[in-house]
């Protein structure tokens, strides 16, 4: 599905992708657009709310940006890359063209190789979990967030019976399960038996990257 969020890629990999400092003993996460799951395993600073770009099918949506943020965890090294902002390069720029938005960051050669290998539709958001699991495209319909404020979305997250809460929390549970597979099911408060059961026994260990959830159509990067 078209994703109007800033173009992001993030990496959770034990080996690292060749960008940023090494973090011995921690797994590295390469992500394009996911926050709810990693919050329970670490702490963000400098995380900002934004409205997404007016791109493709959806109006600007209430969301987060990882640009300029920092993440601390004894289990994970979080490596977000946002390639484009939500700001047009000029008043006359075509809002439907990816290149019309100001550039923020570039993928390293190693990151681009991961993205090219596992995001075969070149869709974003894209998340790589240690080259064992991947999430390509949105795990839920962005239209669920249309015309909602951050406060309304936060309220839905506290109400699992709501459609928005079910969609976001459901995707977050799969992301958490993939992270737990990397960390040896730590921390226990996040890696509950229910979460661990989502991916099934043995997934992500045969050298083939496993898609966390059925892939929805997504925007090209």
* Count, helices: 5
Report how far the terminal alpha carbons are from each other: 12 Å
**Coarse structural class:** alpha+beta
Number of extended strands: 14
Total domain count: 1
Topology as H/E string?
EEHEEEEEEEHEEEHHHEE
Main sheet summary: 6 strands, mixed
Helical residues, percent? 10-25%
Which residues form runs of ≥5 with pLDDT under 50? 1-25, 201-208, 214-221
Mean pLDDT: 75
Report the C-alpha radius of gyration, rounded.
17 Å
What form results from the Cα inertia axes?
Answer: globular
User: Hey, roughly how much beta strand do the residues contain?
Assistant: 15-25%
Summarize the structure.
The chain is built from five helices and 14 strands. The chain is of the alpha+beta class and 221 residues long. It starts with 7 loop residues before the first strand and ends with a strand.
Would you write up a description of this structure?
The protein has 221 residues and is α+β, with helices and mostly antiparallel strands. The protein has one domain. The protein is 21% helix and 24% strand. It contains five helices and 14 strands. Strands 1, 2, 7, 11, 12 and 13 form a six-stranded mixed sheet that branches. A two-stranded antiparallel ribbon has the order 3-6. A hairpin with a 3-residue loop joins strand 11 and strand 12. It is globular, with a radius of gyration of 17 Å. 39% of the residues are buried.
